[in-house]
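quick one before i forget lol
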Amino acid sequence: MNAIYDYLEQNKDRIKEDLLELVKAESPSHRKEKVDNCGNILKEIFQNRLNGNWKLENFNRELTGDHFLFTLEEPSPKPRILFLSHFDTVWEVGALPIIEKGEDIYGPGVFDMKAGLLSSIWAVRSLQQQMEELPFSPVYLFTADEEIGSKTSRSVIEEAAKTCDAVFVMEPPVSESFALKTERKGVGRYTLEVKGVSSHAGNHHEDGVSAIYELAQQIITLEELTNYDKGTTVNVGVIKGGTSSNVVSASAVAEIDFRVTSTDEADKLIQVLENLHPLHPSAELSITGELNRPPMEKSLGSEQLYQKAKLAGKRLGFEIYEAKAGGGSDGNFTAALGIPTLDGLGIPGDGPHAIHEHIHFDRFSERCALVAELCLEIGNS
């Protein structure tokens, strides 16, 4: 395809070594010691692969893995590109074996998103091998709690993004089409608690107020908020309640997930959720939660970024497509700030959060080269 692609193809064995080292360093989000160990390995790979005087800033956390930021020490007027990645995974240690089948590599977090993370490093390395000076200034943020909501990293992500001209989210592309993600749904998480009045289900049923019955009626109201035409979904995914079959339940709880395509729609749902009223006069409701990730809505800047990606793909000899995604990512935060954001720049594969999670390693060089060429598009424009 070109010199960048050729360089990556020549180094496929080294790239695979890096990738397997990262995947073997299993990093379940709730296991801080494991996530931090993976982070240390990632730091070593980064420092061994990239030239330059890099400043490392650590963001230490007590309950999750630590986040860290790499920036070049020399100030530069060049466009700043933020490579945004997470290295925590949904998999407990030992839950998923690491297997190579032909050109596919299976393993915990290989698709979501250690391969994409690694490709951001090798993309810049390939450029450093081809030119004396980069026409852009790379910034790398690696976070450790994306899979559990990014609660301890959101402020770090937003502050880093505010210093940059573009954000590359190194999450994987759409599985079959390899499309980049230019829009993502916002994600809301709420908990509805119901208090009733307990009583004996046989002798004094009429004295009780069933929290379960109240919750069941509220669930019908909530689920009916789903509107596929608007791209809005509401899902009551977990319910708990009661103590025994012969006791009218005094308490019940529901965990609610909603997805929206726009901030306006999010505001409407939040208004409904936070103003729910009990149907039984003696029942009590308590609703807590938040919009965990704002919608990633397409902006003019993000559209321009996507068009640059299409040009970069054309130079490499393949077509680039775009798609909307139902799941959220850390790119939702940066897009909401108005910073041009392009998601799905990682490595093709399939099975996010599933036992068949894998990447197509034979696609690594071309997708990594795409990221490098997109950097040049931004730097030279």
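fyi The first strand starts at residue 54 and ends at 59.
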